[in-house]
Amino acid sequence: MKKVFATPTDLAFAAAQSFQALALEAITARGRFDVALAGGSTPKIIYQTLTTFELPWQQIHIFWGDERCVPPTDARSNYLMVQQALLEKILIPPANVHRMQGELEPAMAVQAYQQQLPIKQFDLIHLGLGTDGHTASLFPASPLEISDSVLSTFPTPNLEPQVPRISLGFSVINAARVKQIFVTGENKRPIFERLGNNEDLPIARVINAEWWFDQAAAID
């Protein structure tokens, strides 16, 4: 499914509406809503927009799709971005916030996060798209064939910040009920030419996802 919006702001508002609808649907059906959030500028606008929506945060559990191996107070932390854009502005129980512990040694952070994951599956996962074709922190040189739920990776050369990462694996990503990939900006367009040539990029391994574009990134 492909959706195109005039601006990133328009995309963010529609994504927040979708978040609200999916949350209410999951809570009605199963009593809680499990969502894995993403880093980056477009997700940040979405999370800022979510602060203006009425949501049953007591029944929403927030996880992350990936994290940089830095402390949670580090400016490079995906957790810190979400905390400043969303968490500190809403009433959500601390026990409902399940961050990746980027301050730990990567193998320990992987093990700790595996123990926090929902027993069955995520209701929603937010994903981005890097200029090298990565999503979450699954890069072209990552061990893409393994079925681990969480793994340690390292970014493509010259892709900042050059620090180890923790990422959900494809077994968890593809098991999610809804996967939304947000793509904004003209610099992402070359990736789709490579995908059209059947290049085995990480983003190509995400199945049955919704693609959300702004007009600058949209392709025919």
Describe this structure in words.
The protein is an alpha/beta fold and 220 residues long. It has one domain (17-204): Rossmann fold, CATH 3.40.50. The chain is 28% helix and 18% strand. The protein has helices at 8-30, 41-50, 78-85, 106-114, 170-173, 189-196; strands at residues 2-5, 33-37, 60-64, 66-68, 124-127, 150-153, 165-168, 178-183, 210-214. A six-stranded parallel beta sheet has the order 1-9-8-5-2-3, with helices on one face. Strands 4-7-6 form a three-stranded antiparallel beta sheet. Helix 2 (41-50) links the parallel strand 2 (33-37) and strand 3 (60-64). Helix 1 packs across helix 2. The longest helix is centred in the first third of the chain and has 23 residues, at 8-30. The two termini are 13 Å apart. The mean pLDDT is 95.
